[in-house]
Write a structure and sequence with these properties.
two-stranded antiparallel ribbon
Length: about 350
């Protein structure tokens, strides 16, 4: 107000509103309160037309769930069981050795740059590897200690979520042998994200300990879901989530086919969960949109008994910098907590 007065605008500048301590919107005029409405009720009134349209266009149960939750607030938070600014890879980076990791992509994949940047910062030598390189024999998985199968839309997802990509491997004898050899080596690891998660889930027959992994089907909402949502890291043997168990934090999601579909209830019980969607209270949820795809028990990441192979539907590589989080608590440094999973992989190699 002082700046406005100094610019000669004092007479036409007025304070028209300020945050209140109650979750209520009030309008005062001439010393009298003329409007008093709960914020969530106003938000529902504002969103009613969109909700009615969504009920006809999308899954009506999902539309109702989202509408009922309008204005709930408090959905995003961060509770960590580790120090996000601790660089557990630093002692290994200091040695000057940068292990080679294949940043694996197929036609239509689009997250390779973010993935390469994350592993590079964690102390790896990130190498761009297209499936055509493997098919032509220009590159061999034998020269890498790890690979990251990136997110995107291989073959436009018209062959099913990651299906075309997986079949390129499963139905090509030389590639099938190469991937099988990579998985059984014992000194290797792999991370599958989004489309890469879908693809690796279809390679479970060749991944030791992955036989209980699900396939990933169309979201229950019937729509592509791109949201910042809460997840929890349960205790698991995953090398990527080492030391992170119990942490809850937001992560970016961007997928149309992320609903985990297990062969049966026994498979779901035996699968090793590495990541779950949770609600504002920190409880695993199947409620939309806190769970954007309808996966049972909020399951959105899995790993193997030895922890070397992990698949997740959300995109940790897209939020590895704090500034990439559209919501963030105060006090975080350059690296977001998600940078920890890439550094954990570097520490695991030693």
């Amino acid at each position: 107000m002082e700046a406005l007065r100094g610019a000669g605008l004092g007479e036409c500048s007025h304070v028209v509103g300020a945050p209140g301590e109650q979750d209520v919107v009030e309008v005062w005029y001439d010393g009298k309160r003329i409007v008093q409405q709960a914020r969530d009720a106003l938000m529902q009134a504002w969103g009613e037309v969109s909700w009615r349209m969504a009920r006809q266009r999308d899954n009506p149960h999902c539309a109702d769930s989202e509408y009922e939750g309008l204005g709930r607030g408090g959905a995003l938070s961060m509770a960590l069981t580790f120090a996000p600014d601790e660089d557990v890879a630093a002692p290994f980076i200091a040695r000057g050795v940068r292990p080679r990791i294949a940043i694996l992509r197929e036609q239509g994949v689009n997250s390779q740059y973010e993935m390469a940047a994350a592993f590079d910062r964690a102390g790896f030598s990130a190498v761009d590897v297209h499936m055509s390189d493997l098919l032509a024999g220009r590159v061999s998985l034998a020269g890498f200690q790890g690979f990251a199968a990136c997110g995107g839309f291989s073959y436009g997802d018209v062959l099913g979520a990651g299906g075309g990509w997986a079949k390129t491997i499963l139905f090509h004898s030389r590639l099938s042998d190469a991937f099988t050899a990579f998985f059984v080596r014992g000194d290797t690891f792999a991370l599958g994200v989004c489309n890469g998660c879908q693809m690796m889930s279809q390679l479970k027959s060749m991944i030791p300990g992955a036989r209980h992994w699900p396939r990933f089907l169309a979201n229950a909402s019937g729509q592509f879901e791109a949201r910042l949502l809460m997840v929890e890291v349960p205790k698991s043997p995953s090398i990527f989530f080492d030391g992170m168990a119990g942490s809850r934090m937001p992560i970016v999601n961007a997928h149309g086919e992320g609903r985990a579909a297990f062969e049966d209830d026994a498979a779901r019980r035996q699968a090793i969960v590495a990541l779950r969607y949770v609600d504002a209270a920190g409880q695993a949820t199947e409620r939309y949109p806190e769970n954007p795809n309808g996966s049972p028990d909020g399951i959105t990441g899995l790993t193997t008994p030895d922890g070397r192979f992990t698949i997740v539907m959300p995109h940790p590589e897209r939020v590895r910098r704090t500034v990439q989080l559209s919501w963030q608590p105060a006090g975080l440094g350059e690296d977001s907590p998600w940078m920890r999973i890439f550094r954990n992989a570097r520490r695991w190699l030693g």
